[in-house]
Amino acid sequence: MENLTKETFMKKVFNFDDNKEWKFEGDKPCVIDFYADWCGPCKIVAPILEELSNEYNGLIDVYKVNTEEENELAAAFGIRSIPSVLFVPKDEKPQMAVGALPKDGFIKAFKDVLGVDQPVAANLY
């Protein structure tokens, strides 16, 4: 999982200074967790996303944006409550989910929104 600043966001996800229309800059689907350190539900989501980041390694990029430090990014996406999670498919417009999702909620969104199936766990063999 990687924390994004406005600068890294514009390189890896969407350069909203140069583009009015959505244009994804990444090479694989991603999930962006908009959070703050003081947010209780954000602390519930963080370990779930950390776990999923490992499980889906190489299939989905998982990013975090600290809304306290990156006000402009939060404003660009109209973040009013946190946690807010942006699901960014490779070739379609992103979709926002507000609130703390359970792990199976993320897995369903990865499949339905990002088109990425749950990988087969390597430790089952």
Quick gist of this model?
This protein has helices at about 5-10, 40-55, 70-75, 105-110; strands spanning about 1-5, 30-35, 60-65, 85-90, 95-100. It is globular, with a radius of gyration of 14 Å.
Distance between the termini: 26 Å
CATH class label: Alpha Beta
> Which fold name corresponds to the CATH topology?
Glutaredoxin
Q: CATH homologous superfamily, by name? A: Glutaredoxin
Radius of gyration, whole Å:
14 Å
Largest sheet: 5 strands, mixed
Strand proportion: 15-25%
Uncertain ranges? none
Folded structure, characterized:
By secondary structure, the chain is α/β, with parallel strands linked by helices. It has one domain (2-110): Glutaredoxin, CATH 3.40.30.10. The protein has 4 helices and 5 strands, in the order βαβαβαββα. The protein has helices at residues 6-12, 40-55, 71-76, 103-112, and strands at 2-3, 30-35, 61-66, 84-88, 95-98. The chain has a 5-stranded mixed β-sheet with strand order 1-3-2-4-5. The protein starts with a strand and ends in a 13-residue tail after the last helix.
